[in-house]
Amino acid sequence: MQNRKAFILFFFIIIGLFCFFMANLFILRFKTGDMYPAYSSLRSDPLGAKALFDAFANLDSVGVQKNYNPVDQLKKLEESCLIFLGVNAGKAHYITKKEHEQIMGLLESGCRLVIALTPANLKSFDKPSKNKKPRQDQEKQDRLKVKKIDLFEKLNITMQYHKTRKNNLFAYPFGQQKTDVFFTPVLWPLALWFQTDSKDWNTIFHIDDKPVVIEKKYGKGSLVLLADSYIFSNESLKKDKNSPLFAWLVKDRSRIVFDEFHFGIQKRPGISTLIKKYNLYGPVMLFAIFILLFIWKNSSGLVPPNEQNEITDLIGTNQEQGQELEKDNISGLANLLKQNIARSNLINECKKAWKDSFVLPNEASQKYLKLYEEMEATGRNSKMKSGVVDEYIRICNILSKGKNQ
Question: Is residue 275 domain-resident?
């Protein structure tokens, strides 16, 4: 019994340690956030943008939040700055017509939209082959126009890739920029740039006279495009804070929204979300302990088994309906007898106890002693091995005969 208890205790200790280490592993993964896409505000490693989000969150003058829902579900974006980081870019960027209408609606209402790109594949910027037929491009465009449109074409810009052997590129403020902020050069590791013939675009930063940060007014709002998202990363902020540029990006907006939905990150409320929201860790732990105790109680027989049926069969009497035996005393006595007296020796012990209980006058004692001797003689002369019940019936017959004499 002691070995069984020790094994159960050891088993629960192993299970507890396993759950503890697994929980720490998941907490570590969620804390660093490396499971999320690059430039997500949920990542705290060099490729994430959590440092910038936390920096804005520490400001009392603005409210900062993450968005896990489609943009059309957001409300009151008129005085907000909506930031999209790590948007995959190529020579063309296709979006649905509905998404384009949503973007234009946000800009017209007064929202400041900041879109920072990142190249999905630099090979897409290579010049097309001379043998490529123009008709194939036209057919491809026709297929895409059915459901999607080219955002860069609508904005009258094209993405270009400036190949260079320089390891450390810097983007410099453009001399003719229409801003009130004094900018300093910022580290810009990849030479993607915007090409446009429209005079509506204001160049903010450039590399070798090639625009990398541009801005355009739309109604009450404005659109800012950045050719790379590196300056938003935790690694970039560790090297250079770039405070003037970030202050200009959000301008005087009282609300800053980091969009996570375009990464495919959605928040689906469930039990774990409610537990975290309302801080229900204590009640949940108590409930888990209660369940474990309930399982342990039902798996162990703490109460002695019911001996009523066995005693009824042994006595050979039928109890009337509604009559109950004193189960506690009888069950305890039956369990005690089972633990100390073997089944084959039960009748002999009963006869011995009956003989030792003679406290009657001499004549009565002699009578019962003769009955006892008859019981012993009958038991010795029995050629067939009888069961406990058969022997008990034979003893009852002898006693009934003795009473009638």
Answer: no
Q: In 3D, which of 102, 149, 30 has the Cα closest to residue 262?
A: 102
Do 18 and 70 fall within a single domain? Answer: no
Number of Cβ atoms within 10 Å of the Cβ of 375: 20
Q: Are residues 174 and 257 in the same domain?
A: yes
Q: Which two tokens stand for residue 354?
A: 């009956």
Q: Are 244 and 70 in contact (CB under 8 A)?
A: no
**Cβ 235 vs Cβ 127: under 8 Å:** no
Q: Give DSSP secondary structure letters for 63-87.
A: EEEEE-S-GGG----TTEEEEEEEE
20, containing H or E segment: helix 2-32
CA dihedral (392, 397, 402, 405) in degrees, to 10, reads 170
Q: How many domains does the chain have?
A: 3
DSSP 200-216: TPEEEEEETTEEEEEEE
Strand, coil or helix: 192: strand
What's the CA gap between 6 and 8, in Å, rounded?
6
Please report, as a single letter, which amino acid is at residue 333. L
H or E segment and range at residue 225: strand 221-226
Q: Give me the domain span that covers residue 344.
A: 308-404
Whether the pTM exceeds 0.85: the reply is no
3-state secondary structure of 163: coil
pLDDT per residue as tens, the chain (405 positions): 456 667 777 777 888 788 777 766 666 655 555 678 889 998 888 889 999 999 999 998 899 999 998 888 888 888 899 999 998 877 777 888 888 888 888 899 899 999 999 876 666 665 554 444 444 554 455 555 446 888 888 888 888 887 665 656 778 787 655 555 678 888 887 778 898 888 889 999 988 888 999 999 998 899 999 999 999 999 999 888 888 899 899 988 889 999 999 888 887 766 776 777 777 878 888 888 888 888 777 765 544 555 555 555 555 544 444 445 455 666 666 777 676 777 777 777 777 777 776 655 556 666 666 766 776 676 655 544 556 677 777 777 777 766 555
